[in-house]
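Supplementary Text 2. Reproducibility record for the structural model of the 316-residue chain.

All settings were left at their defaults, and a single model was retained for analysis rather than an ensemble. We include the record here because the model underlies the residue-level annotations in Supplementary Table 4.
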Amino acid sequence: MGFDPTTLRRDDYGFFGPDSPSWKIWTAPTAVIGFQRAVVLEHFDPFLTAAVADTRRIYTNPRQRLDHTFAYFLLVAIGDGRTAIQASEHLMQIHAPMTGIEPITGKRYAANSPETQLWIHITGWHSVLKAYEVYGPGPLSPEDELRYWEECAIAAELQTCKPEDVPRTREGIRAYFEQVKPRLCSSVRAEEGMHQLLRTSPRNGAGIIYALGSIALSLTTSALTPMWMRKLGRYNVPRISDPLVKLPAKIIVWLFTLFGSFGLLTAAPSIAPMAGQILKQHLSKELPTTLETITPAQARERYSLRGKQNQVAEAS
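Retained model, structure tokens:
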């Protein structure tokens, strides 16, 4: 996924704007912790595991694969409408050929299925909020939290999720997790994926710094994960470490926010280069042409490339 960071907000403030909880939470240093938690938890869905295992990109090019995924979440949360809608269309194009047979159920999986996309979306937005609450400034106000989940539902409009299935409150999120819990499971391929994300191999371009960083990060993400999931996924992170990592993690997060988030911007290139460019552009606070937010429907109508591609195809 190519991206020119200078176009992050050329047109407008995107879907949420500067005063939104989404901007605050997705650009905090804690988002990295939440992101690792999310991509690990995703593997409890056997259909998503099948898609990841069959493509193998978290093994063959782990840094790029995870950087691009994190960058996509950021573009939707803080990019302008044009950037967000075109990024979502690009992602769906990449996902379109990712289909096959899920070996546990024997059923067909599709990376773009509404159920899989909703699982990815909810685990992502829930995890970054949880990390922000525990390792960052703390819980949001009731008003901001309600707004955050409304914004989560708006962002889901860029995926194939069915609007009526997207929770819009914390109680709705809990109900969603209870609803999907009976079909969550682990497997050899799921454990392989989770362990690669928690303790990334330095091979295939990851490098030793990235690998060590994933291990350090895993201590914080494990502490945010229910014990039944940690046992099922064989995280192999002792529970006794949970209270021991909280204070050091909070201090490191705080240090990363000092001096205009200098620490975060310095560390980003070695962790997620594309996401780091997006954060740097965001923190530059350049104003868009129009100081307003728009809806996904408006962005799709104005900036979608799908209609233009179809028109070109028909004309040819």
